[in-house]
């Protein structure tokens, strides 16, 4: 895409049609070491990735809805090492 050729996609258009989250995810997934590319096809793939991430998080949150810390939590000393590292 080139501004001089006029074949660009305005960020406002993407934000209005697909949402700002899609634009943010495209920016986060872009490789800045080279040329940046954006097209309708790339944005469709980003939308699909966003839906997968969102649905996965919804599934994970739904599985923790019945968690009761007083009943289900285990002492930190009994956690596996990677869990203690994540907490730190």
Textual characterization of the structure:
The chain has 88 residues and is mainly α. The chain is built from five helices and no strands. The model has no long low-confidence stretch (mean pLDDT 88).
Provide tags for this entry.
single chain; 88 residues; mainly alpha; 0% strand; elongated
Give a brief rundown of this model.
The chain is mainly α and 88 residues long. It has five helices and no strands. It is elongated.
List the helices and strands and how they pair.
Layout: H1 11-17, H2 20-29, H3 40-63, H4 69-72, H5 81-87
Low-confidence stretches: none
Helical run tally: 5
**Derived structural class:** mainly alpha
Order of helices and strands: HHHHH
Q: What summary fits the major beta sheet?
A: none
Q: What's the average pLDDT?
A: 88
What's the end-to-end separation, in Å?
Answer: 45 Å
Gross morphology? elongated
Amount of beta strand: under 5%
Radius of gyration: 20 Å
- By DSSP, the count of extended strands is 0
Query: Roughly what percent helix?
Result: 55-70%
């Amino acid at each position: 895409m080139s501004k001089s050729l006029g074949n660009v996609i305005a960020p406002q258009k993407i934000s209005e049609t697909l949402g700002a989250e899609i634009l943010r995810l495209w920016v986060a997934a872009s490789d800045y070491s080279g040329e940046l590319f954006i097209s309708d096809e790339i944005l469709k793939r980003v939308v699909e990735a966003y839906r997968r991430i969102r649905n996965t998080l919804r599934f994970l949150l739904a599985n923790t809805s019945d968690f009761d810390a007083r009943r289900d939590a285990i002492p930190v000393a009994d956690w596996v090492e990677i869990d203690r590292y994540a907490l730190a």
